[in-house]
Amino acid sequence: MNDTTKVDTHLEKFSELSLSKELISNLESLKYHSMTQVQAESLPHILQGKDVIAQAKTGSGKTAAFGLPALSKIDTNIRKPQLMVLAPTRELAMQVAEAIESFGKNMKGLRVATLYGGQSYGPQFQQLERGAQVVVGTPGRLMDHLRRKSLKLNDLKVCVLDEADEMLNMGFLEDITWTLDHVPDTTQMCLFS
Ligand code: ADP
Ligand code: MG
Questions:
Q1: Ligand 1 centroid vs 64 CA: distance in angstroms?
Q2: What are the pLDDT tens digits along the chain (193 aa)?
Q3: Which residue out of 29, 34, 43, 63 has the highest number of ligand 1 atoms within 8 Å of its CB and is therefore the one to mutate?
Q4: Which ligand ends up closest to the CA of 161?
């Protein structure tokens, strides 16, 4: 999103959004009171089910911009991936996974799987078998799990490309294209950079 775009002041407060109760109550403890610009401009649209492309600088709060509305759509009783986030590096994948876990702290039964290269498959298979509703990973490893059928995307509600420009710069286009071919047509798509 463009930094010069005027923010609708009606949308500045998280509490005015139809986020789930568990999320709203937790935002207080995270000290998230009002939305950042990229959140005000993208979060309500994602919550409404729209596909979104957003661009904002580092530190502007993009993780919550997609993480909060996506978590709001997750049914923790369904123990299958409902949100998948693609990130360019292991470090970024771990950061996003950690942030999502902190947002969803009050969501009973929420499990987040972090899938990246350079780690053995065993622990990652376990995270998936235990019924992770959120999967965060690097493109190559996500692709490997899809090939091995340890990752299934039939119930995926939201798919996010985080740091999309960086993933393309790193030569992940083919892996991402292949992975997106396995995402159901009904899945909501979000692209952040
Ligand atoms: P980006 O992905 O845009 O670089 P992050 O999602 O990593 O940014 O967020 C940067 C920091 O800002 C994090 O520490 C996050 O907890 C904090 N943050 C995000 N949104 C808010 C908010 N609405 N209020 C207060 N802090 C926020
Ligand atoms: Mg980020």
A1: 7
A2: 544 444 444 558 888 889 998 999 899 899 998 999 999 999 999 999 999 999 999 999 999 999 999 999 999 999 999 999 999 999 999 999 999 999 999 999 999 999 999 999 999 999 999 999 999 999 999 999 999 999 999 999 999 999 999 999 999 999 999 999 999 999 999 999 9
A3: 63
A4: 2
